[in-house]
Amino acid sequence: MPATEKPSVQITPFMARRRGLRVFVFFSTAVLLTGFVSLLFADLLWRTGWSTSRTVLLVLFIILFLLAAIGCVHGVFGFVARLLGDSRAITRLKEFRSQDISGTSTAIVFPVFNEDSGRVCEGLRATYESIERTGHLARFDFFILSDSTNPDKWIEEERRWCELTRDLNALGKIYYRRRVENEGKKSGNIRDFLNHWGRRYRYFICCDADSIMRGDTVVDLVRLMEAHPGVGLIQTVPALINAQSLFGRIQQFANRLYAPVFIAGLNFWAQGFGNYWGHNAIIRTEAFMQNCDLPQLPGRKPFGGQILSHDFVEAALMLKEGWQVWLAHDLEGSYEEAPQDLITNAQRDRRWCQGNLQHGMVLFARGLRSTSRIHLLMGIFGYLASPLWLLFMLTYVWIRLFWEYTNLSLIPAGSQIAWLQNIDPTAHAFLIFIICMSVLMLPKILALVDLSRDFKRQRAFGSLANATGGAVAETIFSTLHAPLQMLWHTQFVISNLLGTTVTWATQQRGADGTAWLYALRSQWWQMVTGVLWGGMIFWFDRAAFWWLAPVLAGMVLAVPLSVLTSRANLGGRARDAGLFLTPEETTPPIELISLHDRITMLEIKGGLAAKPVNSGIAAAVLDPYINAIHVSLLREKRMNPAYAETLAKLGVGTPQVRVLGETLLASGPEKLAPAERMLLLSDAEVMVWLHQQAWLRPAENLAAWWQPVIRQYAR
Q1: Which residues, including other chains, have CB under 8 Å from residue 273's CB and lie 6 or more apart?
Q2: Which residues, 6 or more positions from 103, have their beta carbon under 8 angstroms from its beta carbon?
Q3: Distance CA 501, CA 626 (A)
Q4: CA 243 from centre of chain
Q5: How many CA atoms lie within 13 A of 510 on its CB side?
Q6: Rounded Cα–Cα distance for residues 371 and 316 (Å)
Q7: If exposure means fewest CB atoms within 10 Å of the residue's CB, which of 327, 405, 489, 619 is most exposed?
């Protein structure tokens, strides 16, 4: 591969103009709609007397309605594109399925950080076997890229990897690599892998720990890259799967029903200037290595330092250098899982919020394309919209309470718009409310209309009636959930502005359900906000109370809503009633059937049960099989000069590590700090010595902690 690779098909001025026309038409439609409704709103405010607070209210309304209008226009243009057939989808630009990929090499990478290694390996197995069925397995290698800092997770990952490799007879096809230092988090993990392995592969596909991809989809992605040498990245649209809780099933249903229309609208204007979502995408390796080395942002955290939401920026850097970035929105067979309850979902949003707000430091970077700036700006306002919405409602309440408190008379004036002169201000306000609701609801209605055109898809959702019932129920839930997201996002934005940064935590992917006490501790403030706010408005202004009742209801019901929607039994009842069904449930592909069967088998055998603390250390020391795997991987890592130097800096190979080993044997792992346990596990020679000493030393020379563990392994 050449040392410096440039796209063989550059983004030409003609391509940019053609795509620019689509951008102009798309966003002009949103702006014109916003201008029309904002004029109606300004006229309503004028009829009731102008003031500074009304100026603030109008500015906030314009911003918020523009964001809603952009979402609506995505739905409208996406519906039309699906209705007429968008010839500008990358899968339709040229024939690609006959493309020869025999000369290609692709790495499929799974970055993990203290994840459930059983689930990771079973997802990898399903993808591996699916690619094997295509007959193109020789063109792909698989990598588990660990950044785990938990000793037990580290050892479990090695054991699972070895068992998976043995089961699939995949030695030399599935690799495991754990970094010595996890600098740079996920993006640093990928960069470290590419620096050491990248030039062996023309492409790589980045997955999440819970990703699954069909073999045909993976092969099609490689064929698309081969057919379009000017493309640097193709992002698939992952479908949400395996939800058990009611909340998870609602999110999963909404994703499968609404996403096709919305994403088709996004592809309409983005074209080859698309975006990257961090996983389930194929990337041209050399182009990524040359152009996507992320800068450190100036200043202190949370806005300075490492870029957390790296994917948007990496796509922008690819586009900057002339590579195209596409969204393969009509390519099925890409899957991922999602949080199963409101609180876990909010915790994930907390990380994304800080990452997206950081994009404000990148927004005006020199050389970025205008489309990249639009993507970044939309990501920023995805979180800024919440505090703006809260400020809008507070301003509205302030205006209402001001009139009540001052006892000023309201003398309504006539409308300045001719066709509104004969209606009173209440009817005028109701008209604006109906338009706003229509803008929010129209994409959902169009998604149902789109579904009605395809009888096969209808059956995949149970029926059109089932899908319609699910959409109504999802809308009711979203109405209650939206004010909670507003409060959470506002809290996240304010905490970032005050300098609070997030920690890198493992995403919780289970469906255990939220306990009442935990929900109360986490969301009491949302309930109190709803009760106090609602009580105050009800006392001073009954009319305003009923306008805000849907928002207040979500706050007041925060805890029961969080707890009940986290329940898997309620999710099961909804499924039995035909609500929130998805194509992956009614007609599951073989990959998901295989994953489900393997996970069920592991659960029956107890393979997914929580392990005792320090069970990894016990296994690495006592189990000869696991000890041999662990030591072999450590010795292999030491052969790499770069890794060996880092290990030496950490103190591996020094007498201090043997002292820690003595402490482990004599006093047990509780006497060692987490960093000391990791250092101990990083020294191959000490691990061999520990294995010998633990089995040979008399019981009285070992800590009491070792006695039951040794008896267990002796059996």
Answers
A1: 11, 19, 319, 324, 325, 369, 371, 372
A2: none
A3: 38
A4: 15
A5: 11
A6: 9
A7: 405
CA distance 35 to 23: 18
Cis preceding-peptide flag for 302 (omega within 30 of 0): yes
Reported in sequence order, the residue ranges of 165-298 that DSSP labels E, i.e. its strands, are 174-178, 203-206, 212-213, 231-236, 239-240, 281-284
In angstroms, what is the C-alpha Rg of the chain?
Answer: 28
Residue 57 in tokens: 């209210």
By the 8 A CB rule, do 660 and 679 touch?
yes
Joined together, the tokens standing for residue 697 give 């030393």
pLDDT of res. 407: 60
Unique residue bearing structure tokens 């790499």: 640
Q: Which two tokens stand for residue 290?
A: 């040359």
Tell me the per-residue pLDDT of 351-377, one tens digit each, with 9 for 90 and over.
899 999 999 999 999 999 999 999 999
Coil vs helix vs strand at 668:
coil
**Residue 108 near residue 207 (C-beta atoms within 8 A):** yes
Q: And the tokens for 338?
A: 């999602």
pTM attached to this predicted model: 0.92
Q: Is residue 568 a contact partner of residue 458, using CB atoms and an 8 Å limit?
A: no
Residue 210's nearest CA partner among 352, 338, 340, 108 is 338
Residues of the chain with confidence (pLDDT) below 50? 1-3, 507-511
Measured CA to CA in angstroms, residue 697 lies from 465, 618, 662, 701 at distances of: 70, 15, 12, 6
Distance CA 370, CA 385 (A): 21
Task: Write out the two tokens for 589.
Answer: 């592909």
